[in-house]
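pinging the channel bc i need a second pair of eyes. not urgent but kinda urgent?? the chain im working w is below, pasted from the shared doc
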Amino acid sequence: MINLKPLLLSLLIILSACKRTVSERNTSPHSNVEENIIGSEAEKDDENLPSGKIALKGKIMCIVDGDKAELLYKGEFPLMIRFEHIDAPEKRGSQAYGNKAKRILSDLCFGQEVTLITDGEFDMGGRIIGELINEEGVNVNKEMVRLGYAWHYKKYSDDISYDKLEKEARNNKRGLWQEPNPIAPWDFR
């Protein structure tokens, strides 16, 4: 059976790269598209990765809100990321803690060379879904929940480690859990 996820990931990256003008593409120092998009075998077949996962390395160039960011992959391919397992307060609409969640995420990874662990899935907004590991080796997704600036997004995740982190943050009244009844982003939307 053919695994289409890496192919779809490659296609999305190619389409993102196509936004550049023809003259920019013609002057690119990279001529081997497959090598630049697919990455090295170490990225695809890292023995430490769970089955079906790949590691994309790049630099975080933009923080959108508490659970979305832009990764510059291979120094030239921008990828929008949706952080897997979590949902953070909305910056749009001025949800309580939305701006703070964005600042915390920025402190954890902005400008850093990071690794995105993904299975190549995309959300409906065209963002690649994954867990981000920062330069210090911290799982940023889990840290956002541990610090109390994101919920475990149980609708799309059954990873109990996130549930435990959320309960710990609630019990210790960290971040948004300082409020008596914080509104979850899926209810705010």
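so The chain has one domain: 5-22+32-188. and Strands lie at 54-65, 68-73, 77-83, 86-87, 113-122, 128-133, 151-152. — does that match what u expected or am i reading it wrong
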